[in-house]
Design goal:
Elements (H helix, E strand, L loop, with lengths): L2 E4 L9 H4 L7 H15 L5 E5 L8 H8 L5 E5 L13 E6 L2 E6 L14 E4 L12 E3 L10 E2 H8 L2
Parallel strand pairs: 1-2, 2-3, 5-6, 6-7
Antiparallel strand pairs: 1-8, 4-5
Length: 159
């Protein structure tokens, strides 16, 4: 089992094509390509942490139309557009491979155990915010529309 992280998929959100200059002709192409790239990397036994703005859709049923097409077990953190599930946590913290990880849709200036080598993974900024040390934007716009494996993150952060 591997861990993957992603954010800002914006499934079903037509305006994101323009806002982020995404290279897709329409929302069907974008949604299909995001699903294909996700499943290219993520296996059925893997865990995926979605760090906000999964879909702009309003209902759990609409969100599940996307979730059931995606490989892996899914954990969601609330973003600014996750109307489909208002009970999602805004932040989660856990340890993987001995590394304390803090996940929030928004970048933080400081976070739990940041002075002790923990890392913070965020989205929201679509690659337009310079990260601090031990911090990374894991949104799809920063990784050619693929999720990041935890191994990728460790390499990028040099930990």
């Amino acid at each position: 089992m591997k861990y993957f992280f992603t954010a800002d998929e914006h499934y079903g959100h037509i305006k994101i094509l323009e806002y982020c200059n995404r290279p897709f002709t329409d929302i069907q192409e974008m949604d299909g390509e995001l699903i294909r790239r996700h499943n290219e990397l993520v296996g059925l036994e893997d865990t995926v942490i979605h760090v906000g703005d999964f879909t702009l859709k309003k209902t759990l049923q609409e969100a599940n139309n996307y979730i059931r097409k995606l490989n892996g077990t899914h954990i969601f953190v609330r973003g600014s557009h996750d109307y489909w599930n208002p009970t999602l946590p805004h932040i989660i913290e856990f340890t993987i491979d001995g590394i304390y990880v803090v996940v929030c849709h928004y970048a933080m200036k400081t976070w739990a155990r940041s002075h002790y080598g923990s890392i913070q993974l965020y989205g929201h900024s679509h690659g337009k915010l310079e990260p601090q040390a031990n911090q990374m934007d894991i949104g799809v716009d920063t990784n050619n529309f693929y999720p990041y494996s935890f191994e990728d993150i460790k390499k990028k952060l040099k930990i």
